[in-house]
Amino acid sequence: MTPATSAILVFALCLLVLAPLAVLGYRQTRRAAAATDPDVGSNFLAGMALLFGVLASPVGILFSHLSLRQIARTGASGAGIATAGFYISYTLTVLQLAVLLGIALSS
Questions:
Q1: Which residues on adjacent β-strands are paired with residue 42?
Q2: What is the pTM assigned to this prediction?
Q3: Distances (CA, A) of 65 to 6, 36, 53, 95
Q4: Which among 76, 42, 80 is positioned nearest to 64, based on CA atoms?
Q5: Mean pLDDT for each 10-residue chunk of the chain (107 residues)?
Q6: Coil, strand or helix: which one is 2?
Q7: Fewer Cβ close by (within 10 Å): the C or N end of the chain?
Protein backbone atom coordinates (compact mmCIF):
# COMPACT_ATOMS: atom_id res chain seq x y z
CA MET A 1 0.00 0.00 0.00
CA THR A 2 1.42 3.35 -0.99
CA PRO A 3 1.54 6.30 1.41
CA ALA A 4 -0.98 8.16 -0.77
CA THR A 5 -3.46 5.31 -0.51
CA SER A 6 -2.95 5.17 3.25
CA ALA A 7 -3.57 8.90 3.56
CA ILE A 8 -6.76 8.67 1.53
CA LEU A 9 -8.00 5.74 3.62
CA VAL A 10 -7.32 7.61 6.87
CA PHE A 11 -9.15 10.67 5.51
CA ALA A 12 -12.13 8.53 4.50
CA LEU A 13 -12.16 6.84 7.91
CA CYS A 14 -12.18 10.21 9.67
CA LEU A 15 -15.10 11.36 7.54
CA LEU A 16 -16.96 8.12 8.28
CA VAL A 17 -16.52 8.77 12.00
CA LEU A 18 -17.57 12.43 11.74
CA ALA A 19 -20.66 11.86 9.57
CA PRO A 20 -22.88 10.13 12.18
CA LEU A 21 -21.78 12.63 14.81
CA ALA A 22 -22.76 15.49 12.52
CA VAL A 23 -26.20 13.97 11.95
CA LEU A 24 -26.65 13.54 15.70
CA GLY A 25 -25.57 17.13 16.26
CA TYR A 26 -27.99 18.41 13.61
CA ARG A 27 -30.83 16.69 15.47
CA GLN A 28 -29.56 18.16 18.73
CA THR A 29 -29.64 21.68 17.26
CA ARG A 30 -33.33 21.23 16.44
CA ARG A 31 -34.19 19.97 19.92
CA ALA A 32 -32.14 22.68 21.63
CA ALA A 33 -33.74 25.44 19.56
CA ALA A 34 -37.20 24.16 20.47
CA ALA A 35 -36.39 23.87 24.18
CA THR A 36 -34.77 27.28 24.65
CA ASP A 37 -36.39 29.41 27.33
CA PRO A 38 -35.26 33.06 27.50
CA ASP A 39 -36.07 33.26 31.23
CA VAL A 40 -33.41 30.68 32.08
CA GLY A 41 -29.75 31.76 32.10
CA SER A 42 -27.44 31.11 29.19
CA ASN A 43 -25.34 27.99 28.83
CA PHE A 44 -21.61 28.44 29.54
CA LEU A 45 -20.60 25.54 27.31
CA ALA A 46 -22.28 27.21 24.33
CA GLY A 47 -19.76 30.05 24.49
CA MET A 48 -16.94 27.58 24.98
CA ALA A 49 -18.15 25.64 21.92
CA LEU A 50 -17.93 28.76 19.79
CA LEU A 51 -14.54 29.76 21.21
CA PHE A 52 -12.98 26.33 20.82
CA GLY A 53 -14.69 25.87 17.47
CA VAL A 54 -12.37 28.55 16.16
CA LEU A 55 -9.27 27.78 18.24
CA ALA A 56 -9.30 23.96 18.47
CA SER A 57 -12.11 22.58 16.36
CA PRO A 58 -12.15 18.94 17.62
CA VAL A 59 -12.60 20.26 21.17
CA GLY A 60 -15.29 22.60 19.83
CA ILE A 61 -17.16 19.57 18.50
CA LEU A 62 -17.16 18.06 21.98
CA PHE A 63 -18.31 21.27 23.66
CA SER A 64 -21.01 21.92 21.07
CA HIS A 65 -22.52 18.46 21.53
CA LEU A 66 -22.42 18.81 25.31
CA SER A 67 -23.94 22.29 25.29
CA LEU A 68 -26.71 21.36 22.86
CA ARG A 69 -27.63 18.40 25.04
CA GLN A 70 -27.67 20.56 28.17
CA ILE A 71 -29.76 23.24 26.45
CA ALA A 72 -32.29 20.68 25.26
CA ARG A 73 -32.49 19.22 28.78
CA THR A 74 -32.54 22.41 30.86
CA GLY A 75 -34.04 24.94 28.45
CA ALA A 76 -31.17 27.38 28.94
CA SER A 77 -30.57 30.02 26.30
CA GLY A 78 -27.55 29.89 23.98
CA ALA A 79 -28.81 27.46 21.35
CA GLY A 80 -27.79 29.84 18.57
CA ILE A 81 -24.26 30.19 19.89
CA ALA A 82 -23.94 26.44 20.38
CA THR A 83 -25.27 25.82 16.87
CA ALA A 84 -22.76 28.28 15.42
CA GLY A 85 -19.98 26.54 17.33
CA PHE A 86 -21.24 23.20 16.04
CA TYR A 87 -21.12 24.22 12.37
CA ILE A 88 -17.82 26.10 12.68
CA SER A 89 -16.19 23.18 14.50
CA TYR A 90 -17.22 20.59 11.95
CA THR A 91 -16.34 22.81 8.99
CA LEU A 92 -12.89 23.62 10.32
CA THR A 93 -12.21 20.01 11.28
CA VAL A 94 -13.02 18.78 7.78
CA LEU A 95 -10.89 21.57 6.28
CA GLN A 96 -7.99 20.66 8.56
CA LEU A 97 -8.28 17.02 7.53
CA ALA A 98 -8.32 18.04 3.87
CA VAL A 99 -5.19 20.17 4.35
CA LEU A 100 -3.44 17.27 6.08
CA LEU A 101 -4.47 14.99 3.23
CA GLY A 102 -3.08 17.48 0.72
CA ILE A 103 0.20 17.67 2.62
CA ALA A 104 0.42 13.88 2.80
CA LEU A 105 -0.29 13.49 -0.91
CA SER A 106 2.19 16.18 -1.98
CA SER A 107 5.15 14.67 -0.16
A1: 77
A2: 0.84
A3: 30, 15, 12, 19
A4: 80
A5: 83 87 85 79 90 92 93 88 93 92 85
A6: coil
A7: N
Q: For residue 2, which amino acid is it?
A: T
Q: What pLDDT does 50 receive?
A: 93
Task: Tell me the CA end-to-end span of the chain in Å, nearest whole number.
Answer: 16
56 backbone dihedrals φ, ψ, rounded to 5°? -145, 90
Q: How far apart are CA 89 and CA 40, in angstroms?
A: 26
Positive or negative CA dihedral for 71, 77, 79, 82? negative
CA neighbor of 100 nearest in space, from 19, 1, 12: 12
| CA-to-CA dists, residue 68 to 9, 14, 60, 72, 107, angstroms | 31, 23, 12, 6, 40
Amino acid identity, residue 3?
Answer: P
If one counts every other C-beta atom within 10 angstroms of the C-beta of residue 63, the result is 24
> Could you give the CA distance from residue 74 to residue 64 in angstroms, rounded to a whole number?
15
